Amino acid sequence: MENIQKEARKRKVKNFLNTFKGSKMGMTGAIILGIFIIVAVIGPIVYKYDPMDFGSGADVFNPPSMKHLLGTDDMGRDVLGALMAGSGISLTVGILATIISMILGATIGVVSGYYGGKIDAFLMRLTDVFLVLPWLPLMLVLAAILGSSIWNIILVIGLTGWASTARVVRAQTLSIKERQFIERAKAIGASSGHIMFKHILPNVFPLIFANTILVSAEAILSETTLSFLGMGDSLHPSWGMMLHYAFESGAASIGAYWFLLPPGICVILVVLSFTFLGYAFDELLNPKLKGR
Amino acid sequence: MSLLEVKNLKTYFHIKAGVVKAVDGVSFTLDEGKAIGLVGESGCGKTTTALSIMKLLPPEGRIEGGEILFDGVNLVNESDEEIRKKRWKDISLIFQGAMNAFNPVIRVGEQIIEAIRIHEDVSYDEARKRAGELFELVEIKKDLIDRYPHEFSGGMKQRAMIAMALACNPKLVIGDEPTTALDVMIQAQILDLLERLRKEMKMSMILITHDLSVMAETCDYVAVMYAGKIMEIGKVEKVLENPLHPYTDKLIKAFPDIHGEKVMVESIPGVPPNLIDPPSGCRFHDRCHCAMEICKIKEPEIIQIEDDHKVACHLRGNCHE
Amino acid sequence: MKRNYLIKRILQAVITVLLVVVLNYILFRVMPGNPLAMIMRNPKASPEAVKKVEALFGLDKPWYVQFGVFFKQLLKGDFGLSFTYKKPVIEIIGGKVLPTILLTAVSEIIAIIIGIIIGTISAWKRGTKADVISLSFSLITYSMPTFWLGIVLVAFFSVYLGAFPTTGMTTPGLSDGGFWMTFKDVAKHLFLPALTLSLVLIGEYALVMRNSLLDVLSEDYINTARAKGLTEKDIIKKHAIPNARLPMVTIIAINMGFMIAGAIQVETVFSWPGIGRLMYDALSNRDYPLLQGIFFIISVSVVLANLIADILYSYLDPRIKN
Questions:
Q1: Which of A145, B40, B298, C270 is the most interior residue, by most CB within 10 Å?
Q2: By C-alpha distance, which of C144, C154, C168 is closest to C277?
Q3: Domain boundaries, chain C
């Protein structure tokens, strides 16, 4: 019995991947994201960058040259190197924060949907509050109070981004919990926890996957914004931190476009690639949306 | 001259998977004051035929051949402007499932008034009065014209749709499954209403349905459609009493007769064919228990067997159980 | 019937505000590292000062009393004194509200109007070049950090072209030039910040309007309208848009949070003297009383805005009766 199910699942995944390859949006997103991930992982090995390598006064704000392909920043450091190092940080923060949001959101969603009643009402009220509350002031305040180390930032973004996932998971749980195989599990005497996490969640997973990708895009934007506004971790200079330094040092008035544009463009590209992926998955997994 | 002459109509849908030959050579005529029923399974092309007549096809649909002569004018060649003028004024449509046929944020009466004032040069108050009269015609209280669609029950919405369809006194009304979503009692009411109004206003009607009993009560003629083609066409009594086509025969047998003997209701084995790549020869051959060799190769033409009774079948009515 | 709906919504809003109060309390009084605890633990603080803080905030009393004190202060609008300005927080915030309202209102109105127009054209001409361009525009602005767009615009228009002032709301020394002078001056300063904020919003509104209109255009009643003989233009104007704009109202309400985030960033980049900039400064100075006040005011404003949007929606959609 188990083997047949495994075979069916393998076939489903293979079908899915084939259809995915046909999606222009999905492939574009995957390629762009792939490039950034490779740069993040291999970059530091191939291209040496030392954040402590401050140049002399003359090296500050140098336009692009053969020595520094993207010029130098406000401290005379190589912008291209900083950019590559930053990609790892921005991506890591985004992904880790998303994992926290996903776990939190999925748990709240499935518990809420499964138990219903007062628990559901309470959790949904909580979710509504988090959906209504403006995310940036909340994150800023949390970061200010907890301190802005990289782990706190990941935590803060994760703790504020779960609401949409919770909603989606709850809706799915409500429709799944009436199905037969749940009744059977209950009849056998499976505990609620077992049902929720071993039966319901795996079935919910495909649909929340697309949601998760979009949450990642927002997480990266959040981290960038937090860092820009001064709540970043100076020990881990992400793209947002680069922009923070650029702003604080007046790069705009000097016209140091090589320092201002690249980090922003990178953020746009990464967020776009996540968005493309998210749409592609959504279309693939949600047939109702086909043909938009 | 007949009011409506459909000659060899071909309507195809161009979708990603291919070209769906939804209506592939349909012909029939309708005289003034008469009613014809288009019956058949879902997907056989009844609704597409109706939409083609009113040129209300979705973007993928195109009339690829044939003529639609209405009052002598070929609608296929008419400009959009001309068609718009004829819509509702000459030909109106009662949609399948009136659940969402009314705009939810506009009062029902306003939507009827709109229909009137597009085609006739009357004042707002005139139109409003007529809307009220139309409501009374379909047995809805006059003052309900100021209500919103969600305040109407299913049956009331259907009656309101009929009222709206009659607003401009059209020459032809097309009813696309006008009673399918309703329960039996209301269904009877509405059919009676349609009959009465039709006779009073001397309107012609095309009634699309998959329910033979509904059709039998209201129509003079019937055309049995299958896979985009007409299989049998003729006067209702003749077709029902003496079905010439095996498909018609099965259709009739699929409907239990309350007064008749207790016979097992038969279903028709198999599924309707793929219209992108229809079967060769007669489109019904793979579900037909009388199919001969020729049925698989050559498409039968429509031939007259008796007065007011034609069939498209190589067996010419000689297929019986 | 509608009254019941309104009462229900107002009650919900009140409960949400209460939850915001509780959240505020947790953030600023309970969490580890909260400002009060820092004061208490400060070795340099004299015992009398510590005692004073204790008494003021009831820190030696049980937690529900503490919360009571907190709540009462909140109702009085007493957020304490700002660390940096040494003046009541509420006063400082009060002086910065108007510039923010000016910025957000102008941006919102521009974004709604242009967003609806672009979204409608996009849906109508679906699949054509116009649609693709507008979709790309929406996607890109949505993926862009708002502050970055602001910096780019400032760098190009102000620094490079010199066409607009770089910072602030007014030019110092111009304050007694009369109303018209002041109006023109503020308008010049407002242009770039408002442009930045609108661009990001337009992208989203156009997308929502487009999708909403596409949804509506596939509904049955649109076919009915066409069957009645209406022109395509009239169908969109009289039947489609009245339905399509309903989700827009909801989106604008949901977007309040996004709007605030945008305002904070734009005000920071352009040194626009509003609440957003105030928050940025308060963060750099770790001015906790000020932060608490700003956070509370912003949260309550958003809840209020959502409530107003809900009420407005109930008047626009005749189906909301119960």
A1: C270
A2: C168
A3: 94-316
CB of C166 less than 8 A from some CB of A: yes
CB nearest B95 (choices: C224, C243, C319): C224
- The number of beta carbons lying within 10 Å of the beta carbon of residue C164 is 19
CA distances from C65 to B190, B231, C61 (A): 70, 86, 6
Q: Return the structure tokens found at B92.
A: 């109106």
Tell me, rounded to whole angstroms, the distance of Cα C312 from its chain centroid: 18
pLDDT digits (tens, 9 = 90+) for B222-275: 999 998 999 999 999 998 888 888 888 888 887 766 556 666 666 777 778 888
The full set of domain ranges for chain A reads 22-44+77-284
The pTM of this model reads 0.77
Residue C82's φ and ψ, nearest 5 degrees, are: -70, 140
C-alpha B101/C-alpha B112 separation (Å) is 12
On whether the CB atoms of residues A115 and A126 are closer than 8 A, the answer is no
Q: Is A255 on the interface with C (CB under 8 A)?
A: yes
List, for residues C237-294, the tens digit of each pLDDT value: 899 988 888 888 888 877 888 889 999 999 999 999 999 999 999 888 888 888 888 9
Q: Is C260 near chain A, with CB under 8 Å?
A: yes
Distance between CA atoms of residues C188 and C168, nearest Å:
10
Q: Do B106 and C228 touch (CB under 8 A)?
A: no
- The string of pLDDT tens digits covering residues B38-70 is 998 888 888 899 999 999 998 889 999 999 999
CATH topology of domain A22-44+77-284: MetI-like fold (1.10.3720)
Name the CATH superfamily for C94-316.
MetI-like (1.10.3720.10)
C317/B103 Cβ within 8 A: no
CB neighbour burial string for A196-231, b if at least 16 within 10 angstroms, e if fewer: beebbbeebeebbbbbbbbbbbbbbbbbbbbbbbbb
Point out which residues pair with B230 in neighbouring strands: B225
Helix residue ranges, H only, C26-88: 35-41, 47-57, 63-76
Nearest Cα neighbor of A279 from A20, A92, A105 is A20
